[in-house]
Amino acid sequence: MKSLPVINPAKKCTLFCFIFLIVFQSFLSGPLWSAQKGRTLKEKIDAAIFNHKPKNSQVGISIFSISKGKSLYTLNSRKLFVVASNMKLLTTATALVYLGPDFVYETKVFYRGVLSSRGKLQGDIVIQGSGDPNISGRFYSDEITAVPSSWAKSVEEYGIKTITGDVIGDDTIFDRKFICDSWPKDQLSEWYCAPVCGLSFNDNCIDIILNPNQELGGLAYVNTEPKTSYIKIFNTCKTTDLQSKHLYSVHRRPHTNSIYVKGHIWSKSGPQRAWVTIQDPALYTATVFKEILEDRGINVMGVARVGKASEKTGKNKLYTLAVTTSSLRQSIDVANKRSQGFYAEQLVKTVGAHIKKEGSFSAGLAVMGDFLAKLGFSKNQYQIDDGSGLSKKNRLSPLMITHLLRFMYNHEERDIFWESLSISGVDGTLKNRLTQAPYQSRVRAKTGYVLGTSTLSGYVESVKGEIIIFSILLNEIRGSIRQAKRLQDIICRLLVEHE
Fold first, then answer.
1. Is it the case that residue 150 has pLDDT exceeding 70?
2. Do residues 398 and 471 make contact, with C-beta atoms less than 8 angstroms apart?
């Protein structure tokens, strides 16, 4: 019997590689690969949705090419969705269109009464709010009390040493309905539920800083910024040497300024910071300012209270001590890039105060409705309930959002709106998304999240220089939103690569 030839193992490997290369090249040139390579944008997005859509979730998409002037993709584009923080796109656009880019907030500090040559003021100090959300450390190197400290310096420089009257916070540019009715009642002490007020300070929150005690079992050290008597802290948080027990809560009792710190802090942890909302922002501002005056040696004989600059006291003339300003652009930037709900709601009431002459949620939302009418949408086509998107009663369609984005792209103040959006892989809420080339910096968009909802809407500049508008809204998500964000990012990558 004739034996089979033995093939050298090295030659066998070479032969296998040669055969594989021939087959692979044939595959590349074959109809299957050609079909993959030649897929349309619609086919690619359909495949992404099929493979990555969270189970049982609802998806709405509208994609429009500004460069080509045509729709590129739609899915449930006219259906209404919970939009979460994508609502801020409508809020900030309304503010920019109706107030204009030159709008400036002005918070004024006055004194009224008689000032003696020895520095004794027989009267009051009044802080008149303008709805400005920027009285905080955000634009002052994180020095929380920078603005009220500058006011106190002005009082000093004016020669006032004693104030026989009160320090008054005037918040009357807005009404005193601080909270939207549909915000989650069990979360009102969280920073994203900050009250909305005509005179605001530090985003209407107080910073709570926790440090572990040097002794195990000892109460955590609790400090606040700013330091103020306005709140009361009840601390039962203990120090533990077990990292697994590092769990604490900080919350405010509703309708009070009593803050409770509970749980355990790990002995080897660094400082822990929490932001807790306060009750009655105007009184908070007046109280902190009074305390700063007193720390500077200025004697205040009266109290901190809420009132009107125009209230009749027999000494009604107001003398200006200080004026603090901030721009609309600053507020729009923080609202969109940082997704700061407090800023969005302040803008809602600001628009109402200046356009409808009523600083209320309802007046501001009415102006937003006027803007939607300008875009061609009637009142029965949407629901708007707040300006930040925290309310789940807000309902917009993907098509409405892309119409809005298209309008703003063609608006004369496009740059202000465009630059307020987060940039993929660079800043804001998109800093850690789409970080690789060529996707980094090519997406400018607004993210959105509330329980069960993930949204992303904005602009893409493709590698070919095409400007594309998109809105991707997902509702009824169960569990983590990670898969929803992945789907959004995949679609954005497809748009960046689109030819």
1. yes
2. yes
Q: What is the dihedral of CA 72, 77, 81, 87, to 10 degrees?
A: 50
Among 284, 324, 85, which residue's Cα sits nearest to residue 203? 284
Q: How many CB atoms lie within 10 A of CB 157?
A: 10
211 CB-contact burial (10 Å; exposed 0-12 / middle 13-18 / buried 19+): middle
pLDDT digits (tens, 9 = 90+) for 371-394: 999 999 999 999 999 999 999 999
Domains annotated on the chain, with CATH: 44-100+329-497 (3.40.710.10), 104-327 (3.50.80.20)
Kindly state the helix (H) or strand (E) to which residue 71 belongs, with its residue range: strand 70-75
Task: Work out the end-to-end distance of the chain between its first and last CA atoms, rounded to an integer number of angstroms.
Answer: 65
- Kindly report, residue by residue over 112-149, the tens digit of the pLDDT: 999 999 999 999 999 999 999 999 999 999 999 999 99
pLDDT over threshold 50, residue 450: yes
Residue 380 CB burial class (10 angstroms; 0-12, 13-18, ≥19): exposed
Q: Name residue, tokens 């309008």.
A: 407
- From residue 5, give the alpha-carbon distance in Å to each of 2, 8, 151, 294: 9, 10, 98, 103
Token digits of residue 403: 């119409």
In order of 24, 93, 456, the CA distances from 421 in angstroms are 45, 12, 11
What residues pair up with 475 in beta bridges, in sequence order?
58
